Amino acid sequence: MKAQTDLLYSETEDDLRAAVRSLLGDRAGHQTLLDRIETDDPYVPGLWKSLAGDIGAAGLLVPEGLGGQGASHREAAVVLEELGRAVTPLPYLTSAVVATETLLGLAGEGAGPVAELLASLASGERVAVLAVPFSTAPHPAGAGDGDLPEGPVRAVADAVAADVFLVRRPDGLYAVPAADAVVTPLTPLDLTRPLAVVDPTGAGGSRLADADAARAAVRRGLLAGAGLLASEQLGLAERCLEETVRYTRERHQFNRPVGSFQALKHRMAQLWLDVVGARAAARAAADALATGSPDAPLTVAVAQAYCSKVAVRAAEECVQLHGGIGMTWEHPAHLALKRAKSDQIALGSAGRHQDAIAALMELPAPA
């Protein structure tokens, strides 16, 4: 009998949410982010240490025996919801989820270089990034099953924050120190998630796995990343809806709140329905990953195909319904819109995930 999917939040998850939200509210408010993106370094100093080390969020997916918290994807999803709400520039998705999950696919039971690297990631001492384009999908055709790219890898997310890169080569997966690779920053649409070209050509590194194990581990990491990215998109959409409702209550036109006009009520009601659906899809993906469900690839594809569109629509409505101030650089609405648009093509576009749904369900691909 198939286990029932649990979409509700546990008391532990609620407590974790409160801790993360409090930290981000104190240290990474919107004005702080607006100030940081004016510099070459969007990361708030010391914030990663507080989230990863003090709260222990970086080790949620890592078993206690390997130095982590021994939690699950459900708890990591809660952290990403809060990071999405605040549009926080931190390498959590790339290091604590994608890279960590990739290494967990290789960890086994004993000690070794993989276990040592996992322990350092779980403590927040180091940041690891999988050296693939941020647009790489977790499905077979997107996870590098064909020819491996030679030379520089473009559009690697959070590469500038990495201490070590996980590099897939024809003979396996390697851990390459960031100091041995050439990292060239790019100018991304989303200034809160830096992209860079990473060139590990000629760099040595430690071999962690052979080619077959590397292929499976990378796919596992990308699948977890895509599934939990839906939670980031959910958090962003929820915050956009909340801020839009708040503003339309306060903003008056013709001596009445603009939110009282029927046309705007309908738009926000429809957006609320979309967000509710996104919450169900994102929670289902996190639960499927946490329980190791055989339907996880399908559930993740559904979540990404739906949540990416909802996040963009919520951010667009936030900008539109804030009127003139929503169009300005000084208002944080553009941060949410740029993150939503960037996430829309991250770890596979909605169309790519729709193709995967059709393939997994053995249906004709959507036109």
Topology (elements, then pairings):
Elements: H1 11-27, H2 30-36, H3 47-54, H4 73-86, H5 92-107, H6 113-123, E1 128-130, E2 153-157, E3 164-169, E4 172-177, E5 182-185, E6 195-199, E7 206-209, H7 211-250, E8 252-253, E9 256-257, H8 262-291, H9 296-321, H10 333-344, H11 350-360
Parallel strand pairs: 1-3
Antiparallel strand pairs: 2-6, 3-4, 4-7, 5-6, 8-9
Helix pairs in contact: 1-4, 4-7, 4-8, 5-6, 5-7, 7-8, 7-9, 7-10, 8-9, 9-10, 9-11
Instruction: Describe the largest sheet.
Output: 4 strands, mixed
Shape: globular
Quaternary state, please?
single chain
- What percentage of the residues does DSSP assign to strands (E)? 5-15%
Question: Would you tell me the structural class of the helices and strands?
Answer: alpha+beta
Overall strand count: 9
Share of helix, binned: 40-55%
Number of helices: 11
Helix/strand order, N-terminal first: HHHHHHEEEEEEEHEEHHHH
- Low-pLDDT segments, ≥5 res: none
N/C terminus separation = 35 Å
**Mean pLDDT across all residues, rounded?**
91
CA-atom Rg in angstroms? 20 Å
What is the strand arrangement across the widest sheet? 1-3-4-7
